[in-house]
Design a protein that fits this description.
Distance between the termini: 172 Å
Oligomer: single chain
Strand content: under 5%
Mean pLDDT: 75
Low-confidence stretches: 43-47
Structural class: mainly alpha
């Protein structure tokens, strides 16, 4: 009879025959069930590429950081004008709201002033104050500050007569004659007359 090769199941050592060293290391089947890899499998993969794990990790992180930076830059470039316009419009809206509030306050003040003119006593007081009006039978007095007005002594001369008076020459010449006389006097006192 020919002898058969041993089956793979038969070639395995019995579970009881494990050594202490084997018990300390987790089995790959156990790690797969737990959802993790054994330490040797992770370390071995980095070595398969021929690149150490920290350098590969730094390269992946730098590429990710570069892509993230580009996405953020593109987002900023697209959103910045919109945000700036929004903030400018908010500032303009606030300024316009302030102008509206000031205009409404001015309108209320003017309406109050207009309502005051409906009172006859206020109208009479304004006529007295602004236009110096007096009621019939009253005498108006104007007080002038003595420091501002300098009192002049009247010159001794003829008493003023009622009505229009003539100049000292007695006759009144027309205006064009007066202008002609003044030009003639200016011409006579020219540079030749001074010599």
């Amino acid at each position: 009879m020919a002898r058969r090769p041993p089956s793979p199941v038969a070639a395995r050592p019995a579970p009881a025959a494990r050594t202490r060293r084997d018990d300390a290391r987790p089995r790959r089947d156990d790690a797969r069930r737990a959802g993790t890899r054994p330490a040797g499998a992770r370390a071995g993969r980095g070595r398969e590429d021929g690149e150490p794990r920290p350098a590969r990790l730094a390269r992946v992180l730098s590429v990710r950081a570069l892509v993230l930076g580009m996405v953020l830059l593109a987002g900023f470039t697209l959103l910045f004008p919109t945000v700036r316009a929004y903030l400018a419009q908010r500032a303009e809206l606030a300024a316009l709201a302030g102008q509206v509030a000031a205009a409404e306050q001015a309108e209320r003040d003017l309406q109050r002033e207009l309502d005051r003119w409906e009172d006859d006593a206020y109208v009479a007081a304004q006529a007295r104050e602004r236009l110096s009006y007096v009621l019939p039978g009253e005498t108006a007095y104007r007080v002038i500050d003595p420091e501002v007005v300098v009192e002049e002594e009247p010159e001794d001369g003829p008493e003023p007569a009622d009505g229009p008076t003539l100049p000292d020459g007695g006759a009144v010449a027309p205006w064009y004659a007066t202008v002609w006389d003044s030009l003639a006097a200016a011409g006579a006192s020219g540079p030749e007359a001074e010599e």
